[in-house]
Amino acid sequence: MAKTELSRKTKTEIEDSSSLKGTLASVFLLGFFLIITWVGVYLLFISRF
Amino acid sequence: MHMHKFEKAWLIFGIGSLLVFLTVLGVSAFYLGNQPPSCLATIDPEKVDTTVPFNEPGLKKVEGKDWDYELVYVASAFSYSPAEVEVPYGAKVKIIATTKDVVHGFEVAGSNINMMLEPGYISEHVTTFDKTGEYLIVCNEYCGVGHHMMSSKIKVVE
Lengths: 49, 158
Description:
Chain A: This is Subunit I/II of b(O/a)3-type cytochrome C oxidase. The structure holds 2 protein chains of 2 kinds. Chain A contains 1 helix and no strands. Chain A has one helix at about 20-45. Chain A starts with 20 loop residues before the first helix and ends with a helix. Chain B is α+β, with helices and mostly antiparallel strands. In chain B, about 15% of the residues lie in helices and about 35% in strands.
């Protein structure tokens, strides 16, 4: 006789998606890139007449 | 409201950078007095040649102002008047320029002087020439068939 699936208990692995470390790193990489380029352009502006 | 501590970190960082940038802009505009090159000064484009100071383009020494010299330019298709000018090294100069016909550009290559000259408007820029050399002025707004030949020269001499 075929067994119904109802009684079989399966464990699904739930990945922990609450870690924001990668997001933090990418946000700050973008942030520093923007600041460095902004300061670079500003220094160029200051150094020329 | 629950907020992740990383979220707080990048929000503070982002808003902080924005405030720094805006402060620099505010100091530049309201304390140092930087403004757009064309700032509310107008002229009748038909009468440029008879309007002071454009009736005598070139470098003039002035007294009692924040700058030592005034450098007047009149642009027209496809040249600048004067075609060449010598500026003493270290002079604080106010460049005053306008156009007689169409929109022209006024860019001193390799410097911060970059203005648009529009008919009916006067463009101004105050600067101190603190590097000697020859500087090319080019038109960077397409103005017609002779656009690419439109240039002038500033020589900064000791």
